[in-house]
Each structure stands twice: as C-alpha cells, then as structure tokens.
Write a structure and sequence with these properties.
The radius of gyration is 22 Å and the shape is globular. The termini are far apart. The protein folds into two domains: 155 residues, PurM-like, N-terminal domain (60s Ribosomal Protein L30, Chain: A, 2-Layer Sandwich); 166 residues, Phosphoribosyl-aminoimidazole Synthetase, Chain A, domain 2, CATH 3.90.650. It has a six-stranded mixed sheet. The chain has a four-stranded mixed sheet with strand order 3-6-4-5, with helices on one face. The protein has a two-stranded antiparallel ribbon with strand order 1-2. It contains twelve helices and 14 strands. It has 344 residues and is of the alpha+beta class.
Length: 344
Amino acid sequence: MEEWSYKKAGVNIDAGNEAARRIRQHLQATRNLLVRGEEGGFGGLFAFPSGDFKKPVLVASTDGVGTKLKVAFAMNKHDTVGRDLVNHCVNDILVQGAVPLFFLDYIGTGKVEPVVIEEIISGMAAACRESGCVLLGGETAEMPGFYQEGEYDLVGTIVGVVEEEKLLPKAEMAAGDLLYGLASSGLHTNGYTLARRIFFEVLKKKTGAYMRELGRSVGEELLTPHRCYLPVLKEAIQAGLVKGLAHLTGGGFIDNIPRILAGNHRAVVKKNSWPVLPVFQVLQEAGKIPEPEMYRTFNMGIGMVCIVGPEKEDEFKEKLEAAGENPYRLGYLEEGDKEVVFCS
C-alpha cells in the first residue's frame, strides 16, 4: 500500500517554518513597548495605551489588495503589495480619525515559497513602521489545488484608536464647507480588473513595455504603491481642522464622498481643479470609458477628500503644506441630496 504524508499531499510544513523564520526579523522591527510576548504564539498580545485616552474608541477594518496581485505575479515582484495592503487599511481607519495600533495579515497560497513570503512581509513591515503600527502577527495558509501555481491571496486587518470626541465625520457640516483633495500615486488598489483588461488585452502591452505617456513601463505604473495619508493629515485631524474624510477606493468619487456627508448636503466637485494623472487619461482613451464610469471606478488622481470649514481653511492648508503636501481645492458643499455633482 502506498504511504502518504502531508508533504506528499502538497503541504510542506518545513517550508512554512522557513518562511516564519525569514519574516521574524521584519515583525520584530515593528515592535514597540506595548507588545507583549514573543512571535509564534496562537494570538498576538498588545497592551492598550489606556492612559493616553479619556474615552477611547477602537476602530477596525479588513481589506485585500484585489487583482493588483495579478500584476505582482506577472512581474515576480512581491515587495510592494504588502505596502499597498497596510496603507489602504491605515487610510480606511484614518477617515474616522483613528491612528493605527496593530496589523494582522493573512496569506493564502497553493505552495509556500519562503522567499516570496519574505518579500511580501518586508513591504508590509516597512509600511507598518512608517505608520507607527505594529505588525502583530498573521497566518500563512498552504492550500494546494485551491490557488493557481505561483499565485496567492493577501488580506489584512487593522485595529486603531481615536478619542471619542475626535471621531469623524463630524455632524456639523454646513453649506459652504470646502472640499480639498490630496493627490494619489496612481490607481492605488482599485479598478485593476478593468485596467488590466485595457492594458493587456486592448492595448496588448506586456508588463515590461515602456509607454511614453506614462514615462515608465506598464508594470511599474500598475505596481506603484497605494499612498498613506496619515503623515500629512495626523496633525490637522488632531487640531480639529477636518470635518470629514473620504478615502477614494472602490466607487471613486461617486460612491465614497456621500458616505461621509452629514445632513442634507451634496458635494459639488469642479472638474479640472486638480491634475488628472496620465494613467487615467490612457485608460479612458484606450477603453473608450464614459466619464461617469471613470469617476466611479478610479480615483482620477485624488486619493483622499477632506471637508474643511472655510474658517479653518488657512490653518488646514498651513498644516498640510508644512507636512509637504499641496492640497487641491476641489469644490464645496451645498444643500441637497447626498450625492456628488460635477461642474466645469
């Protein structure tokens, strides 16, 4: 009778242990004085900084990188998608005024490749360090037959905290409040199913193909990391200069801005009030994408929208400019249904 083992069935525990050994240094580099215990436990231990808050509210979010991973597979480049994941999650809790405490990851793959796992985690750990966030732990699951060869899925969960009185969005929005936008670095982590179809099937480009319109290769453009807005917004949020923030992810302008509008207000966005990145112009022209679809699928060069009272405008701009950011004045709020309207 043929003898079977877990390894023969496709699960290599030794490779998993090797991956764990490789990533240990990256996890340790994100540790701070609030971490308890050692890596490798069944759960991560983190001492809540209760003395720093009067009425703390925990904010948690889970997200993935989506089909941007397909570009990483094609380029055999895995150090940016971990950064994408962390930055996306940090931004998602930032819109509620929270700063991150710790992050947990999940990597599912058909075959554990320790070098690839280390690349993913190295980018993740770098992003965590930049955000003051601990990479507390995670799970790497080897499931042969479930994923295609050379592919994996990547998911993360973040936990942060905000003082209750500083929770966003604020209820006291008013007609005349201003909309400011912060530039994106590219597609971030949304719209890749459509973008890949246009670049690789309509334009028939390879990831290594240089495009004059982009000033770099298609792969370099598509793997540009998702921006993190915590460094430029943290002080403005703490100073109470922001009434609301919208992270322009799936749904773009159309679906994300209404999520934060308080009362009977709509957002009026002036087109051409910011530079639309070349990648979006290429996609719209090559794919013959209608303008409304562009603003709903992509961020169009704006990754974060801020709602600011006119009396706080100068101070808001000063804070962001001091942090090296040039915010674009996109428009304003007016009375009406919770929606986004565009004007010239």
